[in-house]
Amino acid sequence: MGKNAFESQGEGVSLKNSFNVVKRIVDENSGNVIYVDIWAPWCPPCIVEMPDSKTLSNYFSNKDVTFVYLNIGGTDKQWKEIINKYELSGIHYYLTNKEWIDVMNRFNAKSIPYYLLFDKEGIMVDFGNHLRPSIPETRSAIEKLLE
Q1: Which pTM does this prediction carry?
Q2: Looking at residue 75, which CATH number applies to its domain?
Q3: CA–CA separation, 122 vs 64, rounded Å?
C-alpha cells in the first residue's frame, strides 16, 4: 500500500454507516486538520487530481494534517493500483456500497471527487468539489486551520 498508507475495509473494521466512518476518522485524528478525499478508481476527474493530492500531502507532511481517502467504488484491485501508482500516503478506506451511499447522502455529495475539511477540533469547516488539491485555495484553507 505504500509508505505511511493504512488500509481498512468498511465493515471489516466495524464501521456501520457514514456517521461512524467520519466519526472514527475524526476521533482517531484528534488535534489534526483532516482533509478527506471521496473518490473512485473509475472516476477520471478523481484520478486527474491524484498527483496534486500527493503534492499537497507532501507539502504538509511535517504538519498536523491527516489525509484520508474514502474510495466509493471499483474493485479492491483497482483501488490498490491507484494508491500504489500515485504513491498516496495517508489513511485509505475502501467503503462498502452501503457506506459510500450513506457518505454521499450525509454530505450532500452529488458528484465526485468531493472533499471534506475538518479543523483540529474535529469540526467540519468546508466541503465540496471546490476543495480539489489542484486549487491553490485548498492549500491556503488548510494553512489557515494550522494557525
Answers
A1: 0.87
A2: 3.40.30.10
A3: 13
Half-sphere exposure of 70 (CA within 13 A, CB side): 30
Q: Which three cell numbers stand for residue 33?
A: 486538520
Per-residue pLDDT at 17: 52
Alpha-carbon dihedral 32, 4, 97, 120, rounded to 10 degrees? 0
Q: How far apart are CA 34 and CA 116, in angstroms?
A: 8
Residue 91's SS3 state is strand
Q: Classify residue 142: in a domain, yes or no.
A: no
- Record the cell numbers describing residue 79, joined without a space: 483501488
Can you give the pLDDT at residue 142?
A: 98
pLDDT score, position 81: 94
Q: How far apart are CA 101 and CA 98, in angstroms?
A: 5
Give the structural domain span for 94.
5-129
Give me the pLDDT at residue 63, please.
96
- For 33, the enclosing helix (H) or strand (E) is strand 33-39
Regions in the chain scoring below 70 on pLDDT:
1-19
Q: Is residue 141 part of a domain?
A: no
Helix (H) or strand (E) holding 100, with range, is helix 97-106
Question: 86, 53 in Cβ contact below 8 A?
Answer: yes
